[in-house]
User: Fold this.
Amino acid sequence: MKVNSTVLLTVSLFALAACSSSDGGSGGGGGGGGEISQGIFEQELPTAEELAGLPQEAQDFVAAWDDLNQNGTEERPNADATYAGSVGFAVESGTAEDNTLVFGDISLAADFTGDIITGSMTNLSAFDSETPPEGAALGGQLDLSNGAITDSRYTADFGGDLTLDDNGDVETFSVAGDLEGAFAGTQTLGVLTGTVTEGPVVDQIDGIFLADQQP
Assistant:
């Protein structure tokens, strides 16, 4: 997934890949030489040097995820709950300089009667070495499916088509993957992996998400 625009963003947020979760759950593939966050999940995160080259919003997102992952306690809520927060993932196209970073919003709804999790990822923007600092807005959204809750954990598939309008030239990217999450007090966090396909080109994606319980 390559975004064609202007200006320079030199560092990919997730020149990383998720490792397996601390109790053997799902996660992403190989390592990228970043910092390992060990706790609810075992996840490779960007180094301090890499984070320093990113917008403050991205730095705060990673720091908050890392803090909850290392210091939070898994706890299944007593009643149905909805969550809203942020998601970030890297489309790994080769070297870190070629990677595309995608940021956006995630919303989740947990039905503990049926042990079902639903949700979507919306308001997504892409950042790479050619986008402006504010990124390039992506059309479409990614929806969760086959979501299942087991104790304080949940899994789901996600997918959808994202579009990029580059001065009238619309590109379509098909995204498919799976995620694993955990409930931790009034928050939830997790990891995701998958693929993004444009024509014959298939790239891997790895990322994290963090959301707060809504009133």
